């Protein structure tokens, strides 16, 4: 009982943000804000909003990330920063980020409510229920100092995930616990995150950017959930592998690589096909003219196999990040299990939205492609 009390007290103490963790966060956000504005990158027009306007996104995430990793790497080499700062202060950074999420979404709520802007991206949607409006947000694409906050937060979350992983990697090298499992986990996640930034422009047509308002749910999801629970919160491989040794056989490693590669092919292939189709509905899919329903929906390629094949690919990738931990504990499988629940929920909401938007065309698409995510199963 005494031990439990002490553990709890230690846990609570490590959750109190120190000044150093606040500096880390401030440096990170300021860097991303400045780099996002000044570094060169392709400027992409977002989807057409209901008032006919289109937002512009500067897709320089890959440049910003590479530069940041280089700056941190050089600073670590010269002893200016410790590469372990994130791994050692994970809980503090987590609670500092949580406080930031609450403050920033309260500010979004207050400024959103008082906005008199009538454009689709800034028009306030106030239900009158404070908790609802704070949770789901009031404006679609609020900005701060000309920075599109939604795009900024998702970028910060994905980069944060890689930075946490790299810090965990440095810690495992330092304490001599680097294993095959850790290497596999790090390679898969790094490839996934880098790929995200190589294809950052595809993000501009995703559900979060085009349909979800910016409230606590999204800010928390981007800034805290993605980087911390996908990696460090004692839930996922990276952190778990620091304390647990796993022996992987060669067939297990090969099978793990296959799950990753097939998952990647399906995930990237499906998202790419939809993106290309939206830009030019005549572009061949797998070398053949596309099957198009009502001139608007793609029903061939991955989108002819299941209505959300991209989710299937993402789920396989998530599984490949956890398989390096073996099957002795369910703890490292937190991310794929969470993602399964999230994507089933999301797919249901998306189908309702599409049924309302496309009406008969959607019904025809359902007839042609009866499976939601996994052919013959779901
Ligand atoms: P999608 O990219 O699948 O976008 C859904 C939208 O695409 C629909 O609302 C509709 O929009 C359009 N659409 C649907 N079917 C068709 C079709 N057959 N032909 C043409 N357009 C179609 O969903 P998300 O934005 O949710 O996901 C994007 C990626 O992000 C996925 O790969 C997902 O796995 C990943 N993701 C990952 C998460 C994570 O935590 N790891 C969380 C959420 C997503 P429109 O009205 O424009 O036609």
Q: What is the makeup of the main sheet?
A: 2 strands, antiparallel
* Widest sheet, order of strands: 1-2
Q: SSE string, helix = H, strand = E?
A: HHEEHHHHEEHHHHHHEEHHHH
Uncertain segments of ≥5 residues (pLDDT<50)?
Answer: 233-237
Percent of residues in β-strands: under 5%
Q: How does the overall form come out from the CA principal axes?
A: globular
For the terminal residues, how far apart are their CA atoms? 47 Å
Subunit arrangement of the protein: single chain
Give the overall average pLDDT.
Answer: 88
Classification by helices and strands: mainly alpha
- Helix percent reads 55-70%
The number of distinct helices, counting runs of at least 4 residues, comes to 16
Radius of gyration computed on alpha carbons? 22 Å
Number of strands: 6
Bound molecules: NADPH dihydro-nicotinamide-adenine-dinucleotide phosphate
Subcellular location: Membrane
Family: Belongs to the ERG4/ERG24 family.
GO cellular component, one term: endoplasmic reticulum membrane
Protein name: Delta(14)-sterol reductase
């Amino acid at each position: 009982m005494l031990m439990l009390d002490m553990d709890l007290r230690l846990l609570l103490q490590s959750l109190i943000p120190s000044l150093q963790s606040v500096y880390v966060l401030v440096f990170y956000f300021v860097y991303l804000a400045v780099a996002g504005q000044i570094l060169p990158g392709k400027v992409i027009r977002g989807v057409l909003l209901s008032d006919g306007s289109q937002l512009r996104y500067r897709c320089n995430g890959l440049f910003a990330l590479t530069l940041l990793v280089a700056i941190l790497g050089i600073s670590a080499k010269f002893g200016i920063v410790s590469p372990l700062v994130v791994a050692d202060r994970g809980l503090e950074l987590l609670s500092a980020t949580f406080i930031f999420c609450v403050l920033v979404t309260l500010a979004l709520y207050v400024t959103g409510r008082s906005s008199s802007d009538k454009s689709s991206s800034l028009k306030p949607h106030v239900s009158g229920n404070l908790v609802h409006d704070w949770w789901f947000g009031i404006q679609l694409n609020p900005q701060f100092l000309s920075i599109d906050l939604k795009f900024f937060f998702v970028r910060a979350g994905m980069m944060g995930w890689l930075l946490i992983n790299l810090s965990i990697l440095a810690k495992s090298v330092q304490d001599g616990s680097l294993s095959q499992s850790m290497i596999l986990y790090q390679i898969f996640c790094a490839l996934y995150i880098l790929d995200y930034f190589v294809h950052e422009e595809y993000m501009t047509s995703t559900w979060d950017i085009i349909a979800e308002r910016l409230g606590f749910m999204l800010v928390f999801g981007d800034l805290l959930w993605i980087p911390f629970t996908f990696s460090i919160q004692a839930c996922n491989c990276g952190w778990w592998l620091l304390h647990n040794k796993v022996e992987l056989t060669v067939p297990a490693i090969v099978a793990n690589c296959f799950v990753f590669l097939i998952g990647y092919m399906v995930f990237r292939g499906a998202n790419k096909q939809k993106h290309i189709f939206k830009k030019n509905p005549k572009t061949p899919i797998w070398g053949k003219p596309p099957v198009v329903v009502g001139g608007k929906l793609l029903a061939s390629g991955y989108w002819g196999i299941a209505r959300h094949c991209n989710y299937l690919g993402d789920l396989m990738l998530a599984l490949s990040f956890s398989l390096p931990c073996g099957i002795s504990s369910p703890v490292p499988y937190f991310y794929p299990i969470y993602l399964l629940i999230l994507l089933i929920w999301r797919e249901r909401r998306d189908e309702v939205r599409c049924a309302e938007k496309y009406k008969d065309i959607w019904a025809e698409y359902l007839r042609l492609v009866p499976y939601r995510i996994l052919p013959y199963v779901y």
